[in-house]
Amino acid sequence: MTPEEFQEKFGIIGESSAMKDVVTKVMQVAPTDVTVLISGESGSGKEVIARAIHGASNRSGKPVVAVNCGAIPEGILESELFGHQRGAFTGAVESRKGYFEIADGGTLFLDEIGDMPLSTQVKLLRVIETGEFMRVGSSNTQSSDVRVIAASNKLLEEEVAKGYFRQDLYFRLRSVNIYMPPLRERREDIPIFIEKFAREFSNRNRIEFGGFTHDAIEALSGLEWPGNVRELKNLVESVIVLERGKKVDSDSIVKYLPKNETLYMGEPTSRFLPVHVDKTPEESERELILRALWEIKNDIVDLKSIIGSGMVGGKLSLPVPHAYTGAESDNGGTRDGAELNLREVEKYLIKTAIEKFHGNKRMAADALGISMRSLYRKLQEYKLKDV
Ligand SMILES: Nc1ncnc2c1ncn2[C@@H]1O[C@H](COP(=O)(O)OP(=O)(O)O)[C@@H](O)[C@H]1O
Ligand SMILES: [Mg+2]
């Protein structure tokens, strides 16, 4: 198999020399049983590589099990990995197989291994070296034939120096170390990613795709991409959904960029000045709307308790966030005033949602949790038809 065929088969995109080096190494190590450590920032493609290694090995007919060591609480990880005996701890009403048994004959992908507690690391080293382990609460040794591929976005050397990671395990894991460079260090791959992700996504969802202008591709190629390929992929997918068949230029790209990431047109050398962010535009918009909804909910709760406590008629000052108080709401102080404020809040939310989704009413309605029909009714009611 040529490297190109290999990439095609396992969906590994990229033609940069960095990516080619990775592919060469992957093709060399895949057919062996050697333990592999894949390092690199989050979203750089570590899992894609781990799955390719399994897929190209003679274990490919057996399961590949992925475990995120950072996401599983410390006390539970050990029983997840090695299984437990009935009665091993409160709640262990049944004996259960761990991932080392489930993945027998196959591959175990241990993601975020830098987050594994030291006590579990000891047991992991043992099973890697001898193939033997014990279920939690059992004194019987069991064996399994599992190839371990580990990944980390932390520098394990530093974790070792700080005493958080065992040196012997680190040495054992890094017998083969594959480093995934961040996307900003292989920018020449960005146009290729954009093209492939766009085609793939529009075909899969049957959405017409109008293509990107040269400027748009250049703009995207100049960004920092702290979330790496994952962030780029998310952006391309949002653009395709929301632009529906339009040709995407650098102006329309701007609204998909995370809030504090800005395109600077002008200076030929540093046209694009990227800033670090950790949210996709969709996420930030959703968050904004959810936050507003959460606030309105609190307002209603407050209002109910005020009404319930018989304070109606007195001087009420509602805790409506000042951003929501329009000119008309200034007559607060009575129950009517309060209702008026609520209408203001609703109006404000609808306006915000529609602006946030650039006039896309379907998405605004979804984010607000109301039907398209209610949205249109409210638009009419609030005379917001032109937003
Ligand atoms: N070289 C690549 N080719 C194709 N898709 C990729 C590549 N690198 C990353 N991706 C995609 O980007 C996303 C994040 O990749 P992933 O392997 O989960 O990153 P990591 O494990 O380093 O956080 C996934 O959707 C993955 O399919
Ligand atoms: Mg990952």
Outline the structure in words.
The chain is α/β, with parallel strands linked by helices. It has three domains: 3-181, P-loop containing nucleotide triphosphate hydrolases (Rossmann fold), CATH 3.40.50.300; 185-275, Helicase, Ruva Protein, domain 3, CATH 1.10.8.60; 282-381, no CATH class. It is built from 16 helices and nine strands. It has helices at 3-10, 17-29, 46-55, 74-82, 99-102, 118-130, 156-162, 167-173, 190-205, 214-221, 228-243, 250-254, 281-308, 335-356, 361-368, 372-381, and strands at residues 36-40, 64-68, 107-111, 132-134, 141-143, 147-152, 176-180, 262-263, 272-273. It starts with a helix and ends in a 6-residue tail after the last helix. The chain binds adenosine-5'-diphosphate (ADP) and magnesium ion. Residues 11-14, 40, 42-48, 229-230, 233 line the site of adenosine-5'-diphosphate.
Write the layout of secondary structure elements.
Layout: H1 3-10, H2 17-29, E1 36-40, H3 46-55, E2 64-68, H4 74-82, H5 99-102, E3 107-111, H6 118-130, E4 132-134, E5 141-143, E6 147-152, H7 156-162, H8 167-173, E7 176-180, H9 190-205, H10 214-221, H11 228-243, H12 250-254, E8 262-263, E9 272-273, H13 281-308, H14 335-356, H15 361-368, H16 372-381
Parallel strand pairs: 1-6, 1-7, 2-3, 3-6
Antiparallel strand pairs: 4-5, 8-9
Helix pairs in contact: 9-11, 13-14, 14-15
The chain binds adenosine-5'-diphosphate and magnesium ion.
